[in-house]
Amino acid sequence: MAKEGEAVCVTGGSGYIGSWLVRFLLERGYTVHATVKDLNDEKETKHLEALEGANSLLRLFQIDLLDYDSIVAAVNGTAGVFHLASPCIVDEVRDPENELLAPAIKGTNNVLTAAKELGVRRVVVTSSISAITPSRYWPADVVKNEDCWTDVEYCKHNKLWYSLSKTLAEKAAWEFAKEKGLDVVVVNPGAVMGPMLPPTINASMLMLLRLLQGCTDIYEDIFMGSVHVKDVALAHILVYENTSATGRHLCVEAISHYGDFAAKVAELYPEYNLPRLPKDTQPGLLRSKIASKKLMDLGLQFIPMEQIIKESVESLKIKNFIS
Ligand SMILES: NC(=O)c1ccc[n+]([C@@H]2O[C@H](COP(=O)([O-])OP(=O)(O)OC[C@H]3O[C@@H](n4cnc5c(N)ncnc54)[C@H](OP(=O)(O)O)[C@@H]3O)[C@@H](O)[C@H]2O)c1
C-alpha cells in the first residue's frame, strides 16, 4: 500500500499496460502523475479520467520522450517512477532511428536523468522479453531466464527494430543505474493480453486479433509466452514496493511457443476457423511453467493462458474489434 500521500509517475500512463497500472496505483491510494502524448486527445485521457479515484489522485502530464523538460515536469514531486512509455511498432518500420530507437533509448536516459536529478527513490523500467530473446548463443539445454540477453547483431541483421530498441534501452538503463547510483528494477513481460481500458488497440492485442482473422504469422523472433495485463501491472507494483526486488524480472505465465497459444485459441474458439500452425514455432525454445520464479517468489500468482485468452477475446468483442 502507498505510504501516506506518496506520489508516483507513470510514463505511458495512457497505454494498454499503463492504464491498468494507473488504475491499480489509484486503488492503493497513490497520487499518480500519468503521462500522455497529447492532452487534447480524448482517446488518451478519457479512460484515465474515468478511473475511480482519478478526481482526487490523478494528474495528467503531456510529455515527449525526447523533450527533457516535459519529463521533469511529470516526475517532479514523485517518490517513484514507472517508465513504460516507448514506441511499440513491430510491423514495418521506415525510419528505425526516429520511430523507435531514439524515443526508446534517449527517452529512457531522459526519464532516468530526471529521476536522479529530482531525488526519486526507485525507478521501475518496463523492458520486454524482446530484450531476452532472440539469443543465438544461449545454451540449448537451459531454460531461458533473466541472465539471457537478446543478440543485438542478430536484431540489426534481421531488422528487428523493436527488439533492438528494447534491448538497447534496457542496457542504457542498467548503465545509468550503475554509473549514477540510481535504484532501478526491470520487468520483462511477454505478450501482454487481457481486457483493454483504452479505446485503441495495442500491438500485442493486435497479434491476437490478427490470429482470429486468419493471419498465419508465427512471430518467430518476438514470442516467448503470454501474460495477463493485470499481472504485468501487479508485477510493476510488487517490484516497486518490495525493496528486496532487484535486477530483471521475466514476466510470463509460462514460457511457451506461439504455436501453443494459437492452438489454445483454436480449441476455445472453433467458430473463428483459425489457421493450423506448427506447434513448435520458436525452434529451440524450452518451455517452462516456473520461468517467472522471481515474481512468483514476490507473491504473484499468474493467471493461466486459457483465462488470458477468454478475457482478451471478450474485450475484443466488447470494443467491437470482432463480432
Ligand atoms: N504489450 C506487450 O505485449 C508488451 C510486452 C513487453 C513489453 N511491453 C512494453 O510495455 C510498455 C507499454 O506497452 P503497451 O503494450 O502498453 O503499449 P501502448 O499501449 O502502445 O503504450 C505505449 C505508451 O508509450 C507512449 N509513448 C510512445 N512513444 C512516446 C513518445 N515519443 N513520447 C511520449 N510517450 C510515448 C504512448 O503514448 P500514446 O498512447 O499517446 O501513443 C503509450 O502511452 C512499452 O515499453 C512496451 O515496450 C509491452
TrEMBL record:
GO molecular function: oxidoreductase activity
Domain NAD-dependent epimerase/dehydratase stretches: 8-245
The protein's name: NAD-dependent epimerase/dehydratase domain-containing protein
InterPro entries documented for this protein: Epimerase_deHydtase, NAD(P)-bd_dom_sf, NAD(P)_dehydrat-like
Keyword NADP annotated: yes
NADP keyword on record: yes
Lineage top rank: taxon: Eukaryota
Organism whose genome encodes this protein: Ilex paraguariensis (yerba mate)
Keywords on record: NADP, Oxidoreductase
